[in-house]
Amino acid sequence: MRYRKVYSAVLLFFCFLYLESIAQEHKLIDSTLTQRQDQMLHRQAEVLLHIADSVLQAFPPQSDEPIPRTLALYLLDALFHDVYADRRPPVHDFLKDRIVKAALDIERTQVADGFVIWKMYDHGFIVRSASVTIAFDLIRPEIRLSSMNSHTQDALEKIIHTCDVLFVSHRHTDHADAWVAQRFLKQGKTVIAPPGVWSDQPFYQDISHLERNGQIKHAIPIRDGTIKLEAVIYPGHQGELLNNVPIIYMPEGYCISHNGDQNQGQIAQDSLWMNTIKEAHNLDVLLYNSYMHQRWIPKFNPKLVVSGHENELSHGIHSRHPYWAMHQRLKPMDYPLVVMVWGERFDYRP
Known about the structure:
The protein is α/β, with parallel strands linked by helices. The chain is built from 10 helices and 13 strands.
């Protein structure tokens, strides 16, 4: 009898510790909910993100998008428009896992024809041809998501090691990460940004500030000068803020542009150069920021539009642009669209 009492007491003690550990593991995120309600949303996010990931792997990015992939994207829209999605660990884990997998894929991928595009967070991209690997607005997600419970620095280190050059569109931290820029510079690689980005940092003098002039085509030496990119830096803006819009020619002749946060805030000024792009350049791909009005896409006249900046989790839900909005926006336009999720790749074959 005495042993039974001792056994029961020990069992109750460990049950208490287990229940206490569960309570401690789940930190209440939405204060308007009870602990159990908040835990349910946490668990639901885990399950639905796993399902979405499985569907996205089965149906990779393509312009003729199959219905299962579209539904998976819209499922992500619903999850990411939870007001507290930016704080939920399952969302953090989903994001980190995709960046880590992309880093491995980037390390292993060799390109023979065309080029490959990987989408990072959030208007960040890696583009690789047979001869060059270009990074655009590459950042660590955790600098935007202060509550992120996992970090991507190791994966970003691997990606940076494979890249040749970094283009930074403007100074906002969802596009410009000083840690990333310094890693490029320490490896002797070129970082190109508008004047003023990181002007308070000691490495500012090492940044390349190419003239923002649509009439000038710059030759950019990479890999110790053995290869040269050509780029025109158009003098774009986000409101009053300087925003570079590069048109880049890879050594193979492919042409690609990334528009940063270019918008219509300086329309009278910027429309002057925008109206010249399609006559001056035969653009293969426009890496299109979802905040830019779609009426400007014909000004670039790309063969393909790849969208970016959707579901920026650090924004309020009113400005986390959903994937469904991208579909609606480009549906009436005669331009193929590829909508990608963080960490995905698309193989461009002209």
